[in-house]
Design goal:
There is one protein chain. This protein is α+β, with helices and mostly antiparallel strands. The chain has 3 domains: 301 residues, DD-peptidase/beta-lactamase superfamily (Beta-lactamase, 3-Layer(aba) Sandwich); 136 residues, STAS domain (Transcription Regulator spoIIAA), CATH 3.30.750; 146 residues, Jelly Rolls (Sandwich). The strands form 5 sheets. A 5-stranded antiparallel sheet has the order 2-1-7-6-5, with helices on both faces. The protein has a 5-stranded mixed sheet with strand order 8-10-11-12-13, sandwiched between helices. Strands 9-18-17-20-15 form a 5-stranded mixed sheet, with no helix packed on it. Helix 14 links the parallel strand 10 and strand 11. Helix 2 packs parallel to helix 4 and helix 7 crosses helix 8. It is elongated, with a radius of gyration of 34 Å. The protein starts with a helix and ends with a helix. The structure holds glutamine. Glutamine (GLN) binds next to loops.
Length: 608
């Protein structure tokens, strides 16, 4: 797919394509067979989308890039404590093949130079060379999302000439940083370096690190999140050998290079990037790799330490139940109670990621509103991510609120929070998927607490409906004769969107939901609950007045009983008792003006 991003990357590719600086690695003779013109760039997003350009499908040996992944593998298998006994995490500032061991302990400085990498490979357990290597190959294949092969020629070539690495391994053995058999460990290391990858593979491997250790294409976890953090740390400080300082200064990404010509970089949470070009500089890093990364980072502002302050936008809005209520239409007295007492419910709508600073913003709002608030509603519908540390802070918030006789309601339809930790038996915290249902719940509690005759239990008599306000008793008895009565079982669709109206409904028992369907024919219809009505409320009157089609479905949420006033009877009233008809129309107007005012007020407060 070509889009603006791929075109920008392409321009970068064109810019460095002609550069022939650097030389092929020749200390492994087989590597001199590489074509110096090869040049590929691949960017994989943390959600698995690729931008691949040039020789992105050309296979080459992974070489030192393997070090990062083997280090991660032994961290996952053995734990950080065991691994740290044998491999440090200090940059050596020396070349990749330097004999950098701590002078006293003999521990290699870090896992990104050969000494530390051979020690890491030595920690991969297995029955023999093949078994140990197979584990590594399998692990890398899971990162790449495909079965990776080995370049046997390159492996043999390095094995025939790798005396320096053998010397390093023997030194490690001397300091007990490597177990016997030493030769086997070195062979596994050579073979691991000879695994064949493409630029595209490497970008996906890097994207798996960017995606907290989950391969974004296969969905498989390839590394524990804590170890992703550790691997990226050493890549940041040591990944480019004695160029690591300059690299993090200018490019600002955890990265790893290999003498095969590959370089990978990771922008946590966003991208994995790989560049392949086999001409190397004096430090053993790909010349075009360094150039491309430097410019790419500048073009897209990828430097890790150039992070914008996101927390300022973490709070989308704060409002009170008195300003914005649920979609439920209620009798007037109930609406008034909500308006009067709704300031005790404070709704905080969050957006973006819910990490420490977003949480800290929430806590600030919460303290500012604590005095008048009984229930806080934390609306996480627009939040995608949180972490366990932030969840723990939220638990502390819940405890403090509860100790103060206050409650938290969380709207978390995507299960961002791990609910198990917020035991609703112990803590006064409620979870809802739907903000409207949660607001309704808060409203019911206010109504119960503040309205004299709280919930209407039996049938609401017809003359109590607002639509029949201001009628004389004669008029009422005339109306009574015209009303029908209909029952609907729970779950039944009472009115169909698009149908012709027949009656006005006066809900005397039960509750209904008004569902709006955004499209009538396609499979991906959007069903939105735009209103709900309880006893004492009339509905369906608008379509009756102007004889237009029904604009939404109406569903019975529970067993429902309604009085009905048919369109025919309404027309009959118009001609025979125009005074009654005029009153009804006027009442309908008043009811709807009331609704409109509430809606306007809500819109006003939401936009402020
Ligand atoms: N196999 C190579 C070696 O050990 C890897 C070195 C590298 O890529 N920098 O020499």
């Amino acid at each position: 797919m070509h889009n603006t991003v791929s075109r920008i990357i392409h321009q970068l590719y064109d810019k460095y394509r002609g550069c022939s600086d650097g030389k092929l690695a020749d200390y492994i003779p087989e590597l001199t067979r590489a074509n110096p013109d090869w040049f590929g760039i691949s960017v994989a997003t943390a959600d698995g989308h690729f931008y691949s350009i040039g020789d992105a499908e050309q296979a080459f040996t992974i070489q030192s890039i393997s070090k990062a992944f083997t280090f991660g593998m032994v961290l996952d298998d053995l734990g950080v404590n065991t691994v740290e006994k044998r491999i440090g995490v200090e940059p050596s500032g020396e070349a990749f093949n330097s004999i950098s061991l701590d002078p006293i302990s003999g521990r290699p400085y870090n896992p990104m130079i050969n000494a530390g990498a051979i020690a890491a490979t030595g920690l991969v357990r297995g029955d023999d060379l093949d078994d140990r290597f197979e584990k590594i190959r399998h692990c890398f294949s899971r990162y790449a999302g495909r079965d990776l092969d080995v370049d046997e020629e390159v492996y043999r070539s390095e094995s025939e000439t790798g005396f320096r690495n053998r010397a390093i391994a023997n030194l490690l053995r001397n300091f007990e940083m490597l177990d016997d058999p030493v030769d086997e460990a070195v062979e596994v290391y050579f073979k691991q370096c000879s695994i064949l990858v493409t630029c595209r593979d490497l970008s996906l491997m890097a994207a798996s690190l960017a995606n907290s250790g989950v391969n974004p294409v296969t969905g498989e976890r390839v590394l524990k999140p804590d170890n992703v953090e550790r691997v990226l740390s050493v890549m940041s400080t040591c990944g480019m050998y004695d160029y690591s300082g300059e690299w993090i200064f200018t490019v600002g990404l955890p990265a790893k290079s290999g003498v095969g010509g590959g370089v990978v970089g990771v922008l946590p949470g966003q991208l994995g990037v790989a560049v392949f070009s086999p001409l190397l500089d004096a430090k053993g890093n790909s010349v075009r790799g360094v150039q491309t990364f430097t410019e790419l980072s500048r073009l897209f502002n990828l430097h890790l330490f150039n992070s914008p302050a996101v927390a300022g936008q973490a709070i989308r809005r704060v409002y009170k139940l008195s300003e914005v209520g649920s979609h439920r239409q209620r009798v007037k007295a109930h609406h008034e109670a909500i308006r009067q007492y709704g300031h005790s419910v404070t709704i905080v709508e969050m957006q973006g990621d819910f990490f420490f600073s977003a949480m800290e913003h929430f806590v600030r709002v919460q303290s500012a509103h604590t005095a008048e608030t009984v229930t806080f509603v934390l609306d996480l519908r627009r939040v995608n991510l949180t972490d366990s540390a932030t969840e723990n802070v939220l638990l502390a918030v819940i405890k403090e609120l509860n100790a103060d006789n206050r409650q938290l309601i969380v709207i978390d339809p995507a299960n961002i929070l791990e609910h198990a930790r917020y035991d609703t038996e112990i803590y006064d915290v409620l979870f809802f998927d739907d903000i409207d249902i949660a607001l309704e719940h808060c409203e019911e509690i206010l109504i119960q607490a503040h309205v004299e005759a709280p919930m209407i239990k039996g049938l609401v008599p017809f003359h109590e409906f607002e639509i029949f306000n201001d009628m004389t008793s004669q008029e009422l008895s005339l109306i009574e004769g015209l009303l029908g009565m209909e029952g609907f079982p729970a779950g039944c669709k009472m009115i169909e969107q698009g149908s012709d109206p027949e009656s006005i409904y006066l809900l005397t028992k039960g509750s209904v939901s008004i569902i709006y369907n955004s499209s009538n024919n396609s499979d991906d219809q959007l069903h939105q609950r735009i209103a709900a009505f309880g006893p004492g409320v009339s509905f369906g009157e608008l379509a009756v007045v102007d004889c237009s089609k029904r604009t939404a479905d109406v569903w019975a949420d529970e067993d429902v009983t309604c009085y009905t006033l048919s369109l025919d009877n309404l027309r009959m009233l118009e001609s025979s008792s125009s005074a009654i008809h005029a009153k009804i129309i006027r009442n309908i107007l008043i009811i709807n003006i009331d609704r409109l005012r509430r809606t306007n007020q809500e819109l006003g407060s939401l936009k402020s």
